[in-house]
């Protein structure tokens, strides 16, 4: 799991659809997720601390959890299937010593996570399917390091390594 944070909302220039952009903590990878307008509005309102005269749906959900003894502990964006992302909201009740996992759309889970100030985690398989690198200089440095590492490797080095691993397994 990779911890990420909301960097903001962008608009797809082709479709006009909102996109929530998550960045890893090192700002090296970004994960764009297309979301609905209502969820984008909810996320923006929280990020920019825009008050609402009445509770928004995500505020209401959080209040319901808290009043029933459950606290939001984290969210996970844990699967993607044909460009549809899936997530889970994790809650915990101290009195009951019980964790409850709630299936949610990532946009709703993110809107709730930023209100509850809890971590947002993304699985490696989700990142592999949709991540965009945002640190090209670091990527280029790592690629150069790797090229320098492999340029001097000989086939006999692999043979030695395999023999050493086989002996340690015995």
Give structural notes.
This protein is an alpha+beta fold and 170 residues long. Helix content is 42%, strand content 34%. It is built from six helices and eight strands, in the order E-E-E-H-H-E-E-E-H-E-H-E-H-H. Strands 6-5-4-7-1-2-3-8 form an eight-stranded mixed β-sheet. A hairpin with a 4-residue loop joins strand 2 and strand 3. Helix 1 packs parallel to helix 3 and helix 2 packs across helix 3. The radius of gyration is 21 Å and the shape is globular. The two termini are 33 Å apart. The model has no long low-confidence stretch (mean pLDDT 84).
Topology:
Elements: E1 2-11, E2 18-24, E3 29-34, H1 37-47, H2 57-67, E4 70-81, E5 84-93, E6 98-104, H3 106-116, E7 120-122, H4 124-130, E8 132-133, H5 136-151, H6 155-169
Parallel strand pairs: 4-7
Antiparallel strand pairs: 1-2, 1-7, 2-3, 3-8, 4-5, 5-6
Uncertain regions spanning at least 5 consecutive residues: none
Taken as a percent bin, the fraction of beta residues is 25-35%
Summed up, the helix count is 6
The description of the largest β-sheet is:
8 strands, mixed
Radius of gyration: 21 Å
How far apart, in Å, are the first and last alpha carbons? 33 Å
Label this structure with key terms.
170 residues; 8 strands; 6 helices; alpha+beta; eight-stranded mixed beta sheet
Summarize the structure.
The protein is an alpha+beta fold and 170 residues long. It contains six helices and eight strands. Helix 1 runs parallel beside helix 3 (106-116).
